[in-house]
Amino acid sequence: MDTTFTPSSDKQTRLLADASQYLAGGGLGLFILPPELNLVVQRGEGSRVWDVAGREYIDYHLSSGPVLLGHAHPEVAAAVAAQLSKGTTYYFLNEPEIELAKRLVEAIPCADQILYTGSGTEATFYALRIARAYTKRNKVLKFEGAWHGMHDYGLWGTVPSSPSNYPHAQPDSVGVPLETGATVLVTPFNETQRAVEMIERHAHELAAVIVEPLQRVLQPEPGFLEAIREVTQRRGIVMIFDEIVTGFRIAWGGAQERYCVVPDIACYGKAISGGFPLAAVAGKEEFMAVLDARKRPRAEVVWATNTLNGNPVCSAAGVAALNILSRSGVQDHLHRIGSQLRQGMVESGTRHGFAVQAPGEDAVWGVRFTERKPLRTWSDLTTSNKDLGVRWGLELLRRGLMVNPNEKFYISIAHTQADVDRTLQIVDDAFAALKH
Ligand SMILES: Cc1ncc(COP(=O)(O)O)c(C=O)c1O
Q: Is the CB of 148 under 6 A from ligand 1?
């Protein structure tokens, strides 16, 4: 693999100019690369991606997580091709969606039933609506620094630069009505006593507590999730796990298996459909019953019907993805590859004189430039030197590692020992370049 930095090609330059003109914000909104490193992907295969200029990358972004199987997995491609020739969407029930729902229920500890959605954002949005309908209460509690998607209830206190005025937080985006904030309480992740006290104080008006069990790259401290589980159960509040990142990735049973806490409802996306746009809410029958128009009067049913939900192409991809992920050795492979990379990155950074840590799990982690230890809360993460993190990430990208600078590293089951060796060499070069 040649990692000397090749300049962009004419074709890629033309495409980027068109993207800049015709796509709002030039692409994916908040994700902006400097012009000399910006790229248009031509294709991906396994752990590798090539851009239109012919540059090759080892992919540690994986489309922000969905490509857990690696790019263009032949079994997913075959399952999708077989479905494509039979049609792409019917609205009426189809076999792959039923099969996938069954497989998800078998795998997910809290699941009796599944509601399909198109994106993770819709999944958390509907999970909160289900909780409100079930409890007949309006407010929800989320944790500072947690990412639950782009809807108006999720975008409070997601990336504040200073601690929020708990339980109030600032909206992350313009256009989010301030009135919505009156129904969203925010408190720090991993501050167990404080969270329990806030939940107790607002229990009479709280429909749900939603939590990313691995909050971005922060592991839950022992006892934190357990305490939230205990108080929500005791006070009749719905506990929602956002497993959109953790599901089928940090363990076959996701965070519920890894951290041994079972919520009432959980949200899934990213890895569950082999890179196709499908997400889901999974929950106990008691809660999912609010979606059941066969058993309740229309006026008491939660509306959550979208045109493409559970479409057969994405569902067929999902069944193939779960078949692959359920094989023995898959999780071991992720741990083996990920732990070497995490350890190697910290060792290399330290050797070059940087205070770096690699918080997270072996299948998904971050590298943060900070001396603060341990990293427990969002506020701890704000001590990290973002400028260094971004510059290091750009050095990696320049040398052929596909990363979102200063965000997360994701690995797939297609990453190999050779990828690890090559990556750690690049990581070392990037730290050396950063030092100079
Ligand atoms: C934990 C978590 N929840 C929800 C979402 C939103 O999912 P989507 O981007 O599919 O809307 C994301 C997206 O990154 C996420 O990481």
A: yes
